[in-house]
Write a structure and sequence with these properties.
148 residues, mainly alpha, Arc Repressor Mutant, subunit A, two-stranded parallel ribbon, two-stranded antiparallel ribbon, 8 helices, 4 strands
């Protein structure tokens, strides 16, 4: 999946309120990728240490409200959810009680945020364009392809 998809996943997860949860599949459907639950997992797995603090990854669960992380990661997730007031019963979370609400509004917020974050051109392209305007040539050269 593209980096843009990962950013959308991170924005969607940030939209889950404290004390609520969502499943990987719900996040995927919210982003318009109905069979993308695994890709949502990959996006959350790709979180770095710094960005992991801003994205509440622990609020995303497997199907049926189950914690899918093995070992210490699952224990950390369970502890964080309990601190937010989420209760567990029969090995999972009651999605009817703690599930994410109003996904349509969340999707509108995600799309608005991602539009703000987009830039019309990458920085290198903007610099090259401004050089062309001022000097008539671009100082940025593309590497030549080697014949194989």
């Amino acid at each position: 999946m593209s980096a843009g998809f990962f950013e959308q996943v991170h924005l969607a997860v940030r939209g889950i309120p404290r004390g609520r949860v969502a499943t990987y599949g719900q996040i995927a459907r919210l982003l318009g990728v109905p069979r993308g639950a695994r890709a949502v997992g990959w996006a959350l797995r790709a979180l770095g240490e710094r960005s992991g603090r801003r994205v509440p990854w622990h609020r995303v669960l497997g199907a049926g409200g189950r914690i899918t992380l093995p070992g210490l990661g699952g224990e950390i997730q369970r502890r964080k959810l309990r601190q937010e007031g989420v209760r567990f019963s029969r090995g999972g979370v009651d999605l009817a009680r703690y599930g994410q609400y109003r996904p349509a509004q969340s999707l509108a917020r995600i799309r608005a945020r991602s539009r703000k974050a987009e830039r019309p051109f990458p920085r290198a392209t903007r610099v090259a364009a401004s050089l062309r305007q001022t000097t008539g040539t671009s100082a940025i050269r593309r590497p030549r392809r080697c014949a194989t």
